[in-house]
Amino acid sequence: KSGFVAILGRPNVGKSTFLNHVMGQKIAIMSDKPQTTRNKIQGIYTTDTEQIVFIDTPGIHKPHNALGDFMVQSAYSTLRECDVVLFMVAADEPRSTGEDMIIERLKKAEVPVLLVVNKIDKVHPDRLFEIVSDYTSQMDFAEVVPISALQGNNTSALIDTLSSKL
Ligand code: GDP
Ligand code: MG
C-alpha cells in the first residue's frame, strides 16, 4: 500500500508531534509557538507492506498578511495532492472558528477525511466523547481516531486505519 497523507489542523493541535512520533526522528520543527512549521515537510513511513508519504502543513488560520496567506494556500493545495486527509483537533480545546473554516473546506474534499482527536492524555473520557460528538455533528468523517501524539497512545491504530484507506 502506498499513498500521500496530508495532516491538517489549526496551529498547536499536535501535527508535528504526531509526525515526529511516527517517523521516530525530529523531522518537523516543534515549538509551543503556533505556526512554527512554515513549509510542507514530508516524512516517508516505510514498512514491508506500506509506503506512506506524510505531508505536514503550516497551520491553517485566518491570514493577516502575505506570509500567512501563503501558508494557508499551501496547506489547502496539499488537499489536492493527497489520498487521505488527517484532520487533527485537540481534545482539550473546544471547536473554534479555526476548525469551522477547515471543516467547510474539507466537506469538498474528494478523498477520505479521518478525524484525529489528539491530546487524549489531557481529558476525561466523558469530555472526549463530547468533543467527538461535536465534530461528527458537523461533518461525516471516514473514521474517528483518538490519540495522544505525545505519549504515542493509539498512534499505531491510526496508521493501520489510514493504511486501510490507501
Ligand atoms: P502543530 O502546530 O499542530 O504542529 O503542533 P505541535 O506538534 O507543534 O504541538 C503543539 C504543542 O502541543 C506542543 O507543546 C506539544 O508538545 C503539545 N502536544 C502535541 N501533542 C500532544 C499530546 O498528545 N498531548 C499533550 N499533552 N500535548 C501534546
Ligand atoms: Mg507544526
TrEMBL record:
Source organism of the structure: Lactococcus termiticola
Q: What is this protein called?
A: GTPase Era
Q: Which UniProt keywords apply?
A: Cell membrane, Cytoplasm, GTP-binding, Membrane, Nucleotide-binding, Ribosome biogenesis, RNA-binding, rRNA-binding
Q: Residues annotated as region G5?
A: 147-149
Q: Which locations, inside or outside the cell, does it occupy?
A: Cytoplasm; Cell membrane
Question: What's the superkingdom here?
Answer: Bacteria
**What is annotated about its quaternary structure and interactions?**
Monomer.
A molecular-function term among this protein's GO annotations: ribosomal small subunit binding
Quote the range of the complete protein represented. 7 to 172 of 303
Its job: An essential GTPase that binds both GDP and GTP, with rapid nucleotide exchange. Plays a role in 16S rRNA processing and 30S ribosomal subunit biogenesis and possibly also in cell cycle regulation and energy metabolism.
Gene Ontology biological-process annotations: ribosomal small subunit assembly
Segment G1: which positions? Answer: 9-16
Give the membrane topology, semicolon-separated if more than one. Peripheral membrane protein
Region (G4) residue ranges read 118-121
**Residues annotated as domain Era-type G:** 1-166
- Specify where the region named G2 lies, as residue ranges: 35-39
Q: Name one GO cellular component term.
A: plasma membrane
Region labeled G3 — which residues? 56-59
In which broad location class does this protein mainly occur, judging by the first location in its UniProt entry?
cytoplasm
Query: What does the sequence similarity comment in the record state about its family?
Result: Belongs to the TRAFAC class TrmE-Era-EngA-EngB-Septin-like GTPase superfamily. Era GTPase family.
**Residues involved in GTP binding:** 9-16, 56-60, 118-121
